[in-house]
Amino acid sequence: MKHEPDGLPAMYRVSPFVSRFAHALLAGVVLATVWVNLSPGSYYDALEWRLFDLDLPGWLAPMPVSVTPMLIVSDLLMTFFVAFIGKEFWEALVLTRGAMAGRRAIVPVAGILGGALGAIVVWIAVAAMIETAEEASFALGWQVPVGGDVVLAYVVARGVFGAGHPALHVSLLLTIGLDILGLLLTGLTDPEAILRLAWLALPALAVLLVWALVARGLTPDLPEARRRRALALWPYVLAGGLSWFGVAASGLPPALGLLPVIPVIPHADRSFGVFAEAEEFLHDPLNRLAHLLVRPLAVVLFFFGLTRGGIDLAAFAPTTLVLLAAVWLGKPLGLLAGLAMAVGGLGVRLPAGLGLREVLLVAMIAGMGFTVPVLALESALPGGAMAEAARLGLALSLLAGPLALLAGRVLPR
Fold first, then answer.
1. Which of 43, 52, 91, 195 gives 20 to 30 Å between its CA and that of 222?
2. Three-state SS for 370?
3. pLDDT interval class at 94 (50, 70, 90)
């Protein structure tokens, strides 16, 4: 059955702002790539321009902190994007008819874990067979290929499956899960990071306070004054700020800083799908916060592409091949193995509308990786040639998108 964009109920359509996110990200990447290849010195000087230094006490920040444009975008502004996709993942888990509610979570979780494991195993195996760089040690950088790219995968998946197809939502859900898992693994396994996980008590405290004082017991029969207080946004914004501070101080990627607060923000009663257009008509606090982020996030993704997406076209090296093997072979094969185990071993049924053709195409689209892997580069790999070679590999991995579009036309329905 062919799924057309027109004529579908709004609840089955993905909001068009996801396409705008992709256009903004690609515009930043193209501009950065032209800049870095024409004038690399000025490009890197602009990224690393020290706006000011933060003189923080040692008990708070053991390493000196220099605020640069790249740090502002990656550690502060991208926090809102990660929270934005985290909101969709959380709703899929807990809302009525959510794509991951109850036993329905087994299939996507199996795909996420299988895809991550496949990417890691192939990275380690291929890197052990070829010398990637003099500074490389065994298994160095295995965290890089785990994540994917939500916005670019959406553009391709929509072209492959059409608007409203269940496979489009499955593809988005798998990519979001891989992104969050990739960031978490990067933070927990960074050998150079100084982890002080006791700081995570601050996000826990923020969550507990906002739940106990504001969100707990929100029901339709509440007195109007308390209901207005529970539906106000500022308590959750304040809790989010405290949570981000605690996560950043703990040594984990600051981009994860808002995720702990999402579960306690009042949300809708049912799920309409990942990034569903129908959510634009919902006015619960979680969706209102998401609505406020839509326009700014397009700007954030443009600057992320500008500060992190400059591709040195002459940076091809063995690390490029290792990266491509991990995302083009390891991740799709691992994802397929995970889904096969869930269906064959656990007897779980695939979502309606997904057959072998759709599963193969979803696995191909998972071979695209850019946004979150680029975030992982700085901590997972030594700077310089090895990181730039991996960045070039991530850019080349996006060719999996056109291949998936071609396969979608060739494979019989």
1. 91
2. coil
3. confident
What pTM was computed for the model? 0.89
282-319: b (≥16 Cβ within 10 Å) or e: bebbbbbbbeebeeebbebbbbbbbbbbbbbeebebbb
Angstrom CA distances, 6 to 3, 10, 340, stand at 9, 10, 34
pLDDT at 412: 80
For the CA atoms of 399, 401, 402, 405, the dihedral, rounded to the nearest 10 degrees, stands at 160
Residues recorded for the chain: 413
Residue 108 in 3-state DSSP?
Answer: helix
Angle formed by the axes of helices 78-94 and 285-308, nearest 10°: 140
Backbone angles phi, psi at 310, to 5 degrees: -70, 115
Q: Identify whether the C-beta of residue 114 lies closer than 8 Å to the C-beta of residue 345.
A: no
User: What CA dihedral angle connects 312, 316, 321 and 322, to 10 degrees?
Assistant: -70
Task: Supply the DSSP symbol for 163.
Answer: T
Beta carbons of 119 and 334 less than 8 angstroms apart: yes
